[in-house]
Every structure is written in C-alpha cells, then in structure tokens.
Design a protein that fits this description.
Layout: E1 17-18, E2 25-31, H1 36-39, E3 45-49, E4 55-58, E5 65-68, E6 72-74, E7 82-83
Parallel strand pairs: 2-3
Antiparallel strand pairs: 1-2, 2-6, 4-5, 6-7
The protein binds zinc ion.
C-alpha cells in the first residue's frame, strides 16, 4: 500500500537513492553468487554476479582519486551511472 503521506516520517521503510547525475531512481548492486530464492527477497537490487567492476572517482571529501566498487546503479537506461 502506497500513500502520499508515506514520506520522510518513516526513515527505514524505504531506502531510496536517487542518481546524483539525473535524479532517477537507483538500485543497490549486489555482488557474488546469490541464489534466485534469495534474490526474490531483495527488491530494487541489481545482481552483478561475480564480475566485480572497479571504478575510479574523485573522492567528494578529499578530492583525491580513488578506486572502488560501485554499490549503486542508476536505473535510467540513458544514464546508467554507477557510484558508491
Ligand atoms: Zn542517472
């Protein structure tokens, strides 16, 4: 049941992330072998399997270059931005 009143007053109800580039909805990326029955309990998740991609970014706090594994993926097909 979704109502218009269900917003910031329920912080743990829905962890929604918005893409910092295009403001579309983003999904969490899950790595590793995840069984289909487990996947069924994880909505709004991208299952990336075992091919962990490394991305380079500029740290927003220190402005230094760093390499990491993205944990969020934009679900806008024309954007596809990944970040962590
Ligand atoms: Zn995006």
């Amino acid at each position: 049941m979704e109502t218009a009143n269900e917003t910031a007053s329920t912080p743990r109800a829905r962890r929604r992330r918005l893409c910092p580039v295009c403001r579309s909805e983003a999904w969490r990326i899950a790595y590793g072998m995840i069984m289909p029955n487990e996947q069924a309990t994880m909505p709004n998740t991208v299952f990336a399997g075992c091919c962990i991609q490394m991305r380079e970014r500029r740290n927003p706090k220190t402005a230094e270059r760093e390499v990491g594994t993205p944990t969020w993926q934009c679900q806008n097909p024309s954007c596809g931005h990944e970040w962590w």
